[in-house]
Amino acid sequence: MTNKEKTLRIEVIGGPMDGLKSILERNALNVIGNNRQKKTKNALSLNLIFDEYVGGQHAKIVHFENKWLIYDLTSINGSWFCSDNGISINASFSNVLEKITPDKPITVKEGSIIILGKTVLAFFLECEENKNNNASKEPDFYINPLENYQFNYECKEIWNDFYKNEHFQYCDVTTLFKLLKKRDNRFKNDNFVCGNKISRAFNWKELCEQWPENYNYSDVYNFFSEKKVISLRVIDIFDNIIKKKKINSSGKIISPNDIYQEIIDERKSVVAKFMEEDEDFLNKFSLRKSFNQLDICLLEYLQKFDSLMVGFIRYLKNDDYIQPFKKDLDTVFCKRWDISDYKNHLGMLLLKYKHLFELLSNNDPIILQKMNELAKT
Question: What is the pTM of this model?
Answer without folding.
Answer: 0.71
